[in-house]
From TrEMBL:
SUPFAM superfamilies: Glyoxalase/Bleomycin resistance protein/Dihydroxybiphenyl dioxygenase. It comes from the Bacteria. InterPro entries: Glyas_Bleomycin-R_OHBP_Dase, Glyas_Fos-R_dOase_dom, VOC_core. This is Bleomycin resistance family protein. Residues 2-117 form the VOC domain. Coiled coil: none annotated. Pfam families: Glyoxalase.
Amino acid sequence: MAFNSLIPTLEVESMDKTIAFYESFLDFKCISRDANNWAFLKKDDVEIMLSSRFYEDKFPKPVFTGGLYIYVDDIDVIWQILKDRVDICYPIENFEYGMREFAIFDNNGYRLQFGQELEPN
């Protein structure tokens, strides 16, 4: 039994605003969309689905306590592009576990972490 891929589905408050965020700041493309109910976004090998809210009465804001971790190949360039344009969760830093990374919040408050492996010394 094989697991072939994982594509997170994020509930969003505004499909239009969320698609605009991912397209304009992160260079994703909206590949498919069903009005305001669902959308499929892609950049390189990273895929994300968006959906309308399922339990808005129980959870007034989208809730996700984790983060989406995106491996990249030129983190410093991405940091320079994003650092003054988006809400920063934590700035770029080298971590003892061998990664250089930073994190931002998207327009719904979801944490997007970007990381690149450090070159061994």
